[in-house]
Design a protein that fits this description.
5-stranded mixed sheet; single chain; Rossmann fold; globular; 5-stranded parallel sheet; alpha/beta
Length: 652
């Protein structure tokens, strides 16, 4: 069914329209205990009305903030809509954030009400309760663990819904009247930034911001109410809110919540999404799984994989974009589709994907080309929380691995003489909550938003992002140093899970590396190399050699680029532990906090630029149960071969 352009300037108004026009059609599914449960649009509208009435009876009013904490669950979606129905402002949290990180947001936003998924999330809120006296009520979805809990602040979702159902009977039409008061310029949601350089900032977004951005994507891709979308990303992330919330309510398609993080791939195969969004880290993890399976396959299968993937990388993207390809190559590629590409796409859950997006951070060109070579219409987009992730996008037939496409409809983008990207767009945020100074720094008097990213337009008018402006530097000889570009080149290899590059102001580039314990562990087991855990595996000499090979392949590629040939990686260290958001080394969206890492592991950085072959490290870590401890290790400093530009092709 083609999309009937939904009228309505707020999310609750759009929900009411869908309930009228497609009330009995599925709106939302969740897999629970292995069975998919379905809510129709009419059922969603009823649940939201009861929940909103319950919140109103509890004292929730227009302009108040409601914390929403947990994985993607239907009742948490209802909570977002219920708060917005009353003119309130939902504040989603990252479900893996520790209590200490959450306390700042609760105080900053004066949050008095919270709806959480389960006991784990409720316990975090009770941990911070003494420091957040404004928090008065906490409702939970999953009742496990609460049977004998009698704390006065705590109650079940069912009790809140029952209160609301009673209020709807007593005051029919009251919630509808509140919904009618809402307007596009009203605040719809507040999302907190990742806080890479300090405390997170509350990004205030209006209904207009999100709905205009959502409609632009729907119109660009011709999305209909027949799309299937997997909602599996953190509810606190702008990508989730744009692609699995705003566009859901604009287009009226179906969203599907997986049973758990561990079952996402299985659930994706069952649903067969037609419209898919994934940050690079998810695509990297999927490629790692594919690589591990192929390493365990028989010799004929490994040969077939290498043969057809070589062909796919050469002609797959061209065929996808409708560009000229010889008849023989097309026939050869079609054969590859039967024996490899189709089964591989099915195993990834992407057999029905019509369009897929990636964003959140720069994606390595090699990783991007891998998916497109399979015939998956993966495209890059560019945006930030402050812009509703709607600035640039790659149109069909104009997809390049190293750009994010031209500006979207209604978006103005300029590149300053400093290389920084500034823009104006319909999705541009209202303000930073209670932070007028930061708002003025980000948005100038003419309404230009300063992104903090560095880039340039190519000859076709496509924007190319180099890195964060503050991170782009130069080696001591003047060679351009773009650490994110080097890191993404390393992360294409399945054995490298994370990388942190250094070199600004130095004579040469170097890197810290996290191995992927699953991929490297599988590699070690097939070679009879015993190990007891990550730290032991990372220190094995054969593993150091394995990573050295990856670094040298990156260097060979870099040598072919006249701009970056001088930034090849000379020395590297395999870290003794995985970088972790709980240890402050990554943000909740898995972005590297490079400056923090440089300070925390200053001794390693100095060893990379010294003469030592081994360096000692001692660092504090946080365990899953909240305890902290010290980890000590001796790390080998590896040396990698570098290549002169003229030797690049022969070395590769």
């Amino acid at each position: 069914m083609a999309l009937a352009h939904a009228a309505g300037d707020t999310f609750p108004k759009l929900l009411a329209r869908h309930a009228r026009e497609r009330g009995e059609r599925p709106a939302l599914r969740e897999k629970d205990l292995g069975i998919w449960q379905t809510w129709t649009w009419a059922e969603v509208e009823t649940e939201v009305r009861f929940l909103a009435a319950g919140l109103a009876r509890a004292g929730f009013r227009r302009g108040m903030h409601l914390a929403v904490v947990g994985d993607n669950r239907p009742r948490l979606y209802f909570a977002l809509l219920a708060a917005q129905s009353l003119g309130g402002i939902p504040v989603p949290f990252y479900q893996d954030a520790p209590a200490g990180e959450m306390a700042f947001v609760f105080r900053d936003a004066d949050i008095g009400f919270a709806i959480v998924e389960d006991q784990e999330q409720a316990d975090k809120l009770f941990e911070i309760l003494p420091d957040c006296p404004g928090l008065k009520r906490i409702w939970y979805d999953d009742p496990r663990g609460f049977r004998h809990d009698r704390r006065p602040e705590l109650a079940s979702y069912e009790s809140l819904r029952a209160e609301g159902e009673g209020r709807v009977r007593d005051q029919p039409g009251a919630i509808e009247a509140e919904v009618s008061k809402g307007a596009g310029p009203d605040v719809a949601i507040m999302l907190y930034t990742s806080g890479t350089t300090g405390n997170p900032k509350g990004v205030v977004l209006s209904h207009d911001n999100l709905l205009v951005s959502g409609r632009n994507y729907v119109e660009l891709e011709g999305l209909t109410d027949e799309e299937e979308v997997l909602a599996y990303l953190p509810m606190a992330w702008i990508g989730q809110n744009l692609f699995s919330y705003a566009q859901w309510l604009v287009a009226g398609f179906r969203i599907n919540c997986p049973e758990s993080a561990e079952t996402v791939l299985t659930d994706m195969r069952e649903i067969g999404p037609t419209y898919y969004f994934a940050p690079p880290r998810v695509l990297e993890a999927l490629l790692t799984q594919v690589t591990i399976r192929m390493e365990d396959a028989s010799s004929p299968k490994r040969w077939m994989f290498r043969h057809f993937m070589g062909l796919a990388r050469r002609v797959g993207s061209a065929i996808l974009d409708g560009k000229p390809v010889s008849a023989l190559d097309r026939l050869h590629y079609a054969l590859g589709g039967i024996v490899l590409f189709a089964p591989l796409k099915n195993s990834l859950g992407m057999s029905r994907v019509r369009v897929a997006y990636t964003a959140g951070e720069a994606i390595g060109p090699d990783l991007f080309v891998f998916y497109r070579s399979l015939g998956i219409n993966l495209k890059q987009l560019y945006g930030q929380t402050e812009t509703c992730a709607a600035v640039c996008v790659q149109p069909d037939g104009q997809v390049k691995p190293d750009t994010v496409g031209p500006p979207m409809k209604g978006v103005e983008v300029r590149v300053l003489d400093t290389g920084e990207i500034v823009l104006r767009c319909p999705g541009l945020f209202v303000e930073y909550h209670r932070n007028a100074e930061a708002t003025r720094e980000a948005k100038d008097a003419e309404g230009w938003y300063h992104t903090g990213d560095a880039g340039f337009f190519d000859a076709d008018g496509h924007l190319r992002i180099i890195d964060r402006a503050k991170d782009v530097g130069k080696l001591s000889d003047g060679t351009l140093f773009a650490p994110k570009y080097l890191e993404n080149k390393l992360k294409f290899f399945p054995f490298v899970k994370e990388a942190v590059a250094f070199g600004d102001g130095r004579a040469e580039a170097s890197a810290m590396v996290n191995i992927d314990v699953q991929a490297v562990g599988d590699w070690a087991e097939r070679r009879g190399i015993p190990y007891s855990g990550y730290q032991d595996l990372a220190a094995k000499p054969p593993v150091v050699e394995l990573v050295r090979e990856c670094v040298e392949k990156v260097n060979a590629d870099l040598a072919a680029d006249p701009t970056l040939a001088g930034s090849q990686i000379h020395r590297f260290v395999i870290l003794h532990k995985e970088l972790d958001a709980d240890d402050g080394e990554l943000t909740r969206t898995r972005k590297v906090r490079r400056r923090y890492i440089a300070e925390k592991y200053a001794g390693i950085v100095e060893a990379l630029y010294g003469e030592a072959e081994v360096c000692a490290v001692e660092a504090q870590v946080r365990f899953e149960d909240g305890r902290t401890g010290m980890v000590r290790a001796q790390l080998a400093v590896g040396h990698a071969k570098t290549f002169p530009p003229a030797a690049a092709r022969s070395a590769a």
